[in-house]
Amino acid sequence: MDVILYDGTLKKGDKIVVGTLDEPLVTNTKAIFLPNPLAEIRVEKKFKSVDQVTAATGVKISAPGLEEVIAGSPVYAARDEEGIEEMKNLVKSELEEIQIETGETGAFVKADTLGSLEALVRLLTEEGIAVRKAEVGAISKKDITEVGALKEESPENAVIFSFNVKLLPGVDKDVYDFGIKIFEGGVVYSLIDDYKEWEKEEIERRKENALKDRTLPGKAKFMKGMIFRQNKPAVVGLEVLGGSLTPKCELMNQEGITIGTIKEMQKEGDTVQKATMGDQVSVSIDGASVGKNIFEGDEFYVKMAPSEAREMREKLADILTGFDIAILEETEKISRKK
Prior knowledge:
- The protein is of the alpha+beta class.
- It has 3 domains: 96 residues, Elongation Factor Tu (Ef-tu), domain 3, CATH 2.40.30.10; 105 residues, Translation initiation factor IF- 2, domain 3 (Rossmann fold, 3-Layer(aba) Sandwich); 118 residues, Elongation Factor Tu (Ef-tu), domain 3 (Beta Barrel).
- It has 7 helices and 21 strands.
- The chain has a 6-stranded antiparallel barrel with strand order 14-15-20-17-16-21. Strands 1-8-5-6 form a 4-stranded antiparallel sheet, with no helix packed on it.
- A hairpin with a 4-residue loop joins β14 and β15.
- The longest helix is centred in the middle third of the chain and has 24 residues.
- The radius of gyration is 32 Å and the shape is rod-shaped.
């Protein structure tokens, strides 16, 4: 264990008290090692065994049970039983001062030290990314199982932020089996940027899956001076005001009356299978007749039953845009007129 001794003296054989995820660990100092003068303790390979050291210096300590220690936790030396209890209380108190607030839902966070864990959770919270669990240490099978249980209910939270920690041996198979997304690295802002990019892609993917084979909301306006054929079928210019239009979807007017079915669409001379907000397209509409049931300046909606529009608006609100939801509300209201 690497330690910075900044006060007092540490001797070989001293009992030390150090923080773990559970109760503070009390153990015996078996050996103390000093790095070469001016050497960096984290990269130095040659050390000198000593019987004692005084502040301030960086040393390596060998003692039983150190594999359970939390990196970044305080270390105290005690030379009698009364001192041990006092030191245990000090360690507990200092660890409790590091407040890492988590919620009932959110991502999992793993980091190499308490300090980096605290900083990462704070930055994630500031970015609006909820955190459910935050711990020091490598990613374990238990972590993957817990995150995997969230995936179906809350896929955007079924992720792990891994700051300077690795997977325990064999855990990579569980990551693959559960399909867990892990954002790993040693730069906090890169982790956050990577998550945000993934979140956008994930929302689009979920939206595509959720809306697959569904009638999608859409609203369009019959542009003035854009009549190419009166009827059988009517061919007119439409501007998409929101949502989308696709071939085979039925259109209704603002009174909830069906005016026809889109047969084909063209944009800039090319046939297209979808037109979205802002597109201006030439549309052939079976059943429509200019001057009879459609007129220049009319606004049309993709036809939906009121219950269908309401269900989509309520169940898919987290993946629909604000424009989509507004159009669904209008569609539901207009559909009830008929």
